[in-house]
Specification:
The protein is of the alpha/beta class and about 350 residues long. It has 9 helices and 21 strands. The two termini are about 30 Å apart.
């Protein structure tokens, strides 16, 4: 959408947080798990943070590449105010370079060429826009929101003051310092768990720290009380084997909660993975059955429009209590978080 925001943005950059100064003008960024050591004049792996004479600057503070008003189901998040509309926005850059990225035009963008096509939306302007649009919350998404740490920290408290909820849709590769900085200000933490083993993350993200990604999600939930939902996009031959799925299920149950929603989504060929097939629906269904057998209460299938397993079933009576079609809630048999059919409480945040 075309932004109505001011163009009077600091194109020269914004001072970054979570920075350690090193010798010879170098700095270490502590925003994401890469903890890049950046020499003077250099940029981090994400390309959005630049060392200028021994000080680190964010090049994308408030620089919005895309925004839209859409349902929370699109994140996907199913157990936090189903059917509610959120102002969703993103910028450029990512600390991953996934070969099958669905948002590669933003995440893999060349900032030197593309940043001039973004528009600046200051914290106050963003909150005012969300209120005008009738959103119940703000979702930082599309590219990796951890790179917007400073912008989120300036905006989220204003959003809370305006009665708005807050959400990030993240790959999860945040340092614990970043999680703790964001913790008091976020309501929903929607995280990708792309696999379980370092080898999978090396292939997909050029990073070998899946345990740290899992630890960040647990910290978001246990220390800060964020509502957490997990997505695993099943890529044929990459992360769809039974051992991987069983390991993720066991982690969910043991370290988060058996009630944590787990979205098992269908991969569609994109970017550098155009040679792979879409995930067979039968394979997704087998993954769903594995999750249920392991004890996960709320697995879901995603990117399979009209499938019955995109709906929510009561953990008490097993009947369908939230019906969905794509991103639309079509029926709800839930009142104040309680099943209307058997009075069983259903974990989540409900209207």
């Amino acid at each position: 959408m075309v932004l109505t925001a001011s163009l009077a943005a600091p194109m020269e950059g914004h001072p970054a947080l979570l920075v350690e100064k090193l010798s010879h003008g170098r700095v270490r960024c502590h925003t994401c798990l890469r903890r890049c050591v950046i020499p003077p004049g250099g940029r981090g792996w994400c390309r959005t943070r630049e060392n200028r004479d021994g000080s680190l600057y964010s090049l994308i503070y408030g620089r919005v590449a895309s925004w839209s008003l859409n349902p929370i189901e699109k994140k996907p998040v199913f157990h936090f105010l189903p059917g509610s509309m959120w102002l969703s926005l993103g910028s450029l850059g990512c600390n991953f370079r996934c070969p099958g990225c669905q948002n590669w035009e933003l995440a893999h963008a060349d900032l030197d060429r593309k940043l001039k096509y973004t528009q600046y939306l200051g914290p106050e302007e963003l909150v005012a826009l969300a209120v005008r649009q009738g959103a119940v919350g703000i979702s930082w998404t599309f590219n990796e929101p951890a790179l917007w740490l400073e912008y989120i920290l300036d905006t989220a408290p204003l959003a809370r003051q305006a009665g708005l909820f807050t959400n990030i849709v993240t790959n999860g590769a945040l340092t614990l310092e970043a999680v703790d900085a964001l913790g008091p200000h976020l309501d929903v933490y929607r995280v990708d768990i792309k696999g379980y083993h370092p080898q999978t993350y090396e292939v997909l993200a050029h990073l070998k720290e899946p345990e740290a990604i899992r630890q960040a999600a647990v910290r978001a939930r246990r220390r800060w009380g964020m509502w957490v939902e997990v997505v695993t996009n099943l890529i044929p031959g990459v992360n769809d084997d039974e051992a991987t799925l069983q390991s993720i299920a066991n982690w969910l149950i043991g370290d988060l909660s058996k009630s944590t929603p787990w979205h098992l989504t269908r991969f569609h060929p994109a970017y550098h993975l155009l040679d792979l097939p879409a995930t067979p629906v039968k394979q997704l269904e087998a993954a769903y059955q594995l999750a249920r057998a392991a004890g996960v209460c709320f697995p879901y299938l995603g990117n399979v429009p009209g499938h019955t397993w995109e709906n929510t079933f009561c953990p008490g009576c097993s009947r369908e209590i939230i019906s969905r079609h794509i991103f639309t809630v079509t029926a709800k048999r839930l009142t104040a978080g309680v099943c209307q059919l058997c009075s069983t409480p259903v974990p989540g945040v409900w209207q």
